[in-house]
Amino acid sequence: MLTLDNAQQIIRAALDDAASRGLKPLAIVVLDARGALKAAIAQDGAPLLRDRIAHGKAYGAIGLGMGSRALFRRAEEQPFFVSAANAIAGGALVPVPGGVLIRGADGAVLGSVGISGDTSDNDEACAVAAIKAAGLTPDVG
Predict the structure, then answer these.
(1) DSSP letters of 34-48?
(2) Long-range contacts made by residues 105-110, C-beta under 8 angstroms, separation at least 24?
């Protein structure tokens, strides 16, 4: 189970990683295994929609069981599938890197993290570093 403490550790670690790498202001969303919001923040200066984009990255990862980078690749290979999945999800999926599954020691999916604000590659790298810093396992899929 992903605890509130885990989610807060991930957010703190993501903020620290972003600061150390000089990233633009981020929005960070942590969802539990059922896709419910566990924790979220938007840094000062993050544009208005960044939290919704971060949520869409995390939601797509947990909803389809793959990191948003894998979802991005799937969108290139099977655009109709991702379009249909996004329609079913009410347009809530954002199929670009920055959404990462969180796995526990036993490999079970505990939740996901979505980050938006810098480049998609930097968003994803920050999510991976934050999950590791919280003692959990990232899965970009």
Answers:
(1) TS-EEEEEE-TT--T
(2) 105/137, 107/137, 108/33, 109/33, 109/62, 109/65, 109/139, 110/1, 110/2, 110/6, 110/32, 110/33, 110/136
Please tell me the distance from the alpha carbon of residue 85 to that of residue 99, in angstroms, as a whole number. 16
Per-residue pLDDT at 141 exceeds 90: no
What's the CA gap between 33 and 47, in Å, rounded? Answer: 27
110: enclosing H helix or E strand: strand 109-116
Would residue 121 be called left, alpha or beta, if left means φ above 0 and alpha means ψ between -120 and 50 degrees?
alpha
Q: In whole angstroms, how far apart are CA 107 and each of 63, 87, 135, 139?
A: 17, 29, 13, 10
Domain 4-139, CATH class in plain words = alpha beta
Strands 27-32 and 99-103: unpaired
pLDDT tens, residue by residue, 104-129: 999 999 999 999 999 999 999 999 99
